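Archive record
______________

***
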Amino acid sequence: MGLTFRPMTVDDHGLRRAAASDNTHGADVDVPPLSLYLDFRPERGDAGFVALDGGRPVGLIQATFIRGWGHVAGDIPEMMLNVAAGHRNIGLGSQLIDRLAEHARLAGWPGLSLSVEEGNIARRLYERKGFVDRAAAGTMLLNLSDRITSVAVYCGSSHGARPEYTTAARELGHELARRRLTLVYGGGAVGLMGVVADAVVDKQGAVTGVIPRQLVDRELAHPGLTRLEVVETMAQRKSRMEQLADAFIALPGGAGTLEELFEVLTMQQLGHIRGPVALCNTEGFWDPQIAMLHRAVDEGFLRAKYVDCLVVADTPAAVLDAFTDWTSPGRKWD
């Protein structure tokens, strides 16, 4: 088998139609919204590739600037991938994604989105290629830039001793919704966790919760989220939140919040996360922790650049504003 690839053209309408029909199990693709996926316009930036085996089309991938089921933003095109039945499980889908992703980087696209239903086996391929779920059910995004589209928030499952902590959580939720940033958090309905989620929901923002099954069984899960993922362990919860988020903010909290904060600080040093980590320093809550980090630098246990890059601000708005000019400190051994 000698596979070759060529750019997609407007004349490939029949191939797009067959691919869309196959992907939707024979649905009528000539009527909206499925007909959107047949609309290929290079003049607006649409691009794609067709895979050939001996001159015969056996797969295609396209990215089109449409408002389909997987729409995320106006400058992020939606991807459609299809591989012929006889050519699956040989890495062809992966090759097509790589070609499109390279084109996307050269074109300066901030990402690629797609729509794929829960339980579809193709999700495993997309996850391997770096796509992650976004709040809308069935929507995945491959982030190709440093743009922040989702923020993980770590905070207490209680309200704390000061009303200012609750106020800060509410303000953060409102700011996330106003800036159209997806909240990623621990999925609970109690304490500051519940306050920040309620605030985003109240402003029609997007919220993804990740919660261990034992907490769902104790009826602690928030019932009104855009998306709720149930995992088996606390470790899986932390890992999944790190996958879903582009930036990380710690509000006041207890041992769990401290554990989550230090995990992402460590992951930042190792280069496993690229985005900023921030402390919302309401009422000086984080001052002792900041002093401890500086002590670790002074005693030779921590490099100063990792403390210097930690965003610290008194209000949620100031924290989010600081993300704009944030620069990655690089990996520990760079």
